[in-house]
Amino acid sequence: MLYKSLLAATLVMFTPSVNAQEKGTLKKKPVSQPLVKHIYTADPSAHVFNGRIYIYPSHDVEAGVKENDNGDHFDMRDYHILSMDSIGGKITDHGVALDKNDIPWAGRQLWAPDAAYKNGTYYLYFPIKDKQDIFRIGVATAQTPTGPFKAEKEPIKGSFSIDPAVFKDTDGSYYMYFGGIWGGQLQHWNDHKYDPAAKLKNKNEQAILPRVAKLSADMKSFTEEARNIQILDETGKPFLESNNDKRFFEAAWMHKYKGKYYFSYSTGDTHYICYAIGNSPYGPFTYKGVVLNPVEGWTNHHSIVEIKEKWYIFYHDVQLSGKTHLRNVKVAELRYEADGTIQTINPYQ
Ligand code: FUB
Fold first, then answer.
1. Most distant CA pair in the chain: distance in Å?
2. pLDDT of residue 9
3. Whether residue 112 has its Cβ less than 6 Å from ligand 1
């Protein structure tokens, strides 16, 4: 607690190293600057609670782990929550909100989190590998949006893989969207069972689908077995693995705009944030286009949120470090066309 209150002071901005633009590792001029520079942050899930903007990011660190396709080099150990009054306002780092050593079932790699609020309690949802090295999704609670959060003794029953995104529908129901292929292990989950021998799909097979489950009233369990989310092309066909510039890879997010459900996600190895629109929180969703073009760094991950009648995308790149596992969160305005489609954002000019 003492550590937390000491860190809760408003930030003194300083750069951890010479930034990537100065080093020449950023190829083009970015449209947005890193929101904080004193720590590396990624995968920002933004929410407005009591009129203040809170960002729940991953906290990237240099763990000295060799880079591989499993993402072992993303070896994060805790979360820091950031907040600000308004876009462009002063940012506060609220210190350590949850440490992996305080999660009873945790193994390694604390990846992209999300948060929700219900009836006086804040819920932090997080993926981490368990002691058997299998990704599960956990939940921790606090009485304030910045914690400190207390983790439940076990992961959410029926949860697996990574990147939880919790959406509150206008009828008060909450849904969790999740999943990520490659290092996120989604390819190992078939019929709710983990198959260590399962492989990624071949180019001509149907792409692996993200998952959704409705949350129970206590926000700590699912009311149902996770369902597949269908993402269809404009002719109604599901994507094949070869459609890797449009198929789901990781980083699910859901938002609602003018009564429609917008499911957005990263295409991973082709680095786009795409979106698809549907009429139900369960889908099916029809692919509509690109929200955010590729950023510098391998991963692309985002959240979309309405703040004071404007819409924003929170995302990350590697402007500060030039290294794929040491990212920095950013924000840019997101605009819709009159027909409800989203204008594609170019992160560089
Ligand atoms: O931060 C670790 C992983 O990288 C996230 O879980 C993925 O979405 C990607 O951003």
1. 57
2. 36
3. yes
Question: Cβ of 186: how many Cβ atoms within 10 Å?
Answer: 26
Distance CA 41, CA 253 (A): 18
- Which residue of the set 75, 250, 296, 317 is catalytic? 250
Instruction: Pick the residue whose CA is nearest to atom 4 on ligand 1.
Output: 299
Q: How far apart are CA 323 and CA 278, in angstroms?
A: 36
The topology (CATH level 3) of 9-334 is: Tachylectin-2; Chain A (2.115.10)
The number of the ligand 1 atom at minimal distance from the alpha carbon of 162 is 6
Give the DSSP per-residue string, 285-338: EEEEEEEEPPPSSS----EEEEETTEEEEEEEE-TTTS-TTS-EEEEEEE-B-T
How many of the other CB atoms lie within 10 Å of CB of 108? 17
Write down the number of H helices and E strands in the chain. Answer: 2, 22
Its pTM stands at 0.94
The pLDDT score that the predictor gives to residue 28 is: 83
What residue ranges of the chain have pLDDT lower than 70?
Answer: 1-25
Q: Is the CB of 326 under 6 A from ligand 1?
A: no
SS3 letters across 73-129: CCCCCEEEEEEECCCCCCEEEEEEEEEHHHCCCECCCCCCCEEEEECCEEEEEEEEE
Res 347: pLDDT:
98
299 lines ligand 1 (CB under 6 A): yes
282-309 pLDDT per residue, tens? 999 999 999 999 999 999 999 999 999 9
Question: Is 250 labeled as catalytic in the residue annotation?
Answer: yes
Whether residue 75 has its Cβ less than 6 Å from ligand 1: no
- Whether ligand 1 lies within 6 angstroms of the CB of 42 is answered as yes
Which pLDDT does position 25 carry in this prediction? 59
- CA–centroid distance, residue 338 to ligand 1 (Å): 32
